[in-house]
Amino acid sequence: MDAFEKIARLEGYKYIAGIDEAGRGPLAGPVVAAAVIFPPAYTNNQINDSKKLTARKREDLFEIIKNDAVAVGLGVVDNEIIDKVNILQATFLAMREAVFELSMPPDYLLIDGLHGLAIKLPQKALVKGDTISVSIAAASIIAKVTRDRIMEIYHRQYPHYNFTHNKGYGTNEHCLAIEKYGSCKIHRKSFHLKKSKLNQNSLNLF
Hints:
The chain is of the alpha/beta class. It folds into 2 domains: 3-148, Ribonuclease H-like superfamily/Ribonuclease H (Nucleotidyltransferase, domain 5, 2-Layer Sandwich); 156-203. 41% of the residues lie in helices and 15% in strands. The chain contains 8 helices and 5 strands. The protein has helices at residues 3-10, 55-68, 79-85, 87-100, 134-157, 163-166, 172-181, 200-203, and strands at 16-22, 31-37, 71-77, 108-112, 123-126. Helix 2 packs across helix 5. The radius of gyration is 18 Å and the shape is globular.
């Protein structure tokens, strides 16, 4: 899981930041990105793609990563900006913010996905990077746990949608709640539900 970090260090880079996001697909809430810099030669066999871990395991690793990392940065972009610029551009904004929030400036970036970032730093985009880079995997955990906690706060404001359970994703329960109560302030209006999920009148909510 640290092969790409090792390659970057052999090329002379010292502060290598792994970057990933959580929340591209939900119907509600923000997209959250994280950037993580570990000390040289850092390994932890428990760190993996956040999607492959239980919620309890992610919470445990969240604390370990925060303690072990040289620096952790976060970027949060809310649903209103997502609606203005689209989810892909909002994801890039969140990732850039996460990099700039690092207390120690990185000199190399490892980014989950197909695309690099508009930042003047050497970087490498890795498809499924959260399964092959410990730094990116750690960032995926930080981003996921942070976003889940945000959605739990929103649940207290908008309990009808049960955000504690669905975290804003388009589960049947969530879609039925939208059909019954309409959308709330944190729903993404640019995300259109399929007709199979809601009736035609409810589609106008987004």
